[in-house]
Amino acid sequence: MITKGSNHDWRAPLLGQARWRWWEFLLWALAFAAPLVLPQHALMVNEIAIVALFAMSLDLVLGYTGIVSLGHAAFFGFGAYAAALFAKLVMPDPTVGLVVATVLAAVLGLLASVTILRGSDLTRLMVTLGTALLLLELANKLDWLTGGADGLQGVVMGPVLGLFDFDLYGRVAAWYSLAVALVLFLLMRRLVHSPFGATLMAIRDNRLRAMAIGIPVTARMSVIYTIAAAVAGAAGALLAQTTGFASLDVLAFDRSADVLLMLVIGGVGWLYGGVAGAIVFKLLQDTLSSVTPQYWMFWIGLLLVLLMLVGRERLLRPQSWFRKGGAA
Question: Sign of dihedral through CA atoms 158, 164, 166, 170?
């Protein structure tokens, strides 16, 4: 028999994990201040916000639910093309376009979730990769709609909320992407620290045991896959809207591989792992590609080897300290 007191005790750990820490407020405050303080790096801030959101969407299925994927770029690219086509053919309002692209990506995720409910991890790897490759080929062949290999050009966006025009320096784009990333982060944070999120981690740890205690594993996997697809689609929409361009690159395998590397760097099963991984990856990419344009991936690979051999907790002591606080 579950009493009121025992129910309170059961919820206490979840409530404690969901409590905000001081460094989280500082992190987001610095992020929003960066385009103003460092206007020359506003475009980089915008890109980091987008890929961080993309990485967090993958963490929902990989880190929290244990669903491996090599084709998460399918939803990212679908959202990018949906937002670009909506702006070009229907209306240029970025907020409406973002909502439309997110909903369409969620529908695609719901349909694709059927393919990941059965089979082993290797099967899911191949199926998710195949889904992304199919969309890539469709985007290439439907050149009358998507622009094919030349990309979808001539995408002109209206002002955000009818008030803020996108500027050449990228400050409005950066604040727009950061605001969307923060809103979706708050929703994902609430999700993973809810009883629903606890069932996802139970599925990740032992699927058979989760089924034995009455968790609807199939339904939970389908729901979280759909939500992750929606978030990835929103990230893709932000990229298309803030750059005014969508190309086959948004559906390429490299996009899925890069976001997986970000989670390896930042850590899975921790929403801020996607944020940390995105920051480190993009800064390393920008710095190393300017120093050694042909060999920057070598240094990224060396970092990954060190992470695997030495251990992330030893290399990234501050992250280890932050995670002890129980934040998302």
Answer: negative
Please tell me the distance from the alpha carbon of residue 263 to that of residue 280, in angstroms, as a whole number.
Answer: 11
Answer yes or no: are the C-beta atoms of 130 and 122 closer than 8 Å.
no
Its pTM stands at 0.86
Select from 26, 20, 44 the least CA-distant residue to 193.
20
The closest alpha carbon to 192, from 61, 99, 72, 102, belongs to: 61
- Cα 222 → chain centroid: 17
Whole-angstrom distance, CA of residue 64 vs CA of residue 157: 35
Q: Which residue segments constitute the domains of the chain, with CATH numbers given?
A: 40-323 (1.10.3470)
DSSP 3-state of 205: helix
Beta partners for 160? Answer: 164
Q: Which of 42, 66, 51 is nearest to 261 (CA)?
A: 51
Cα separation, 194 vs 64, whole angstroms: 12
Q: Which residue has the tokens 């948004």?
A: 250
Q: What is the pLDDT of residues 61-85, one digit of tens each?
A: 998 988 888 888 999 999 999 999 9
Question: Alpha-carbon distance 81 to 240, whole Å?
Answer: 7
**CA 191, CA 327: separation in Å to the nearest integer?**
13
Question: What is the CB neighbour count within 10 angstroms for residue 14?
Answer: 15
- Structure tokens of 309? 């051999």
| 167-195 pLDDT per residue, tens | 777 888 899 999 999 999 999 999 999 88
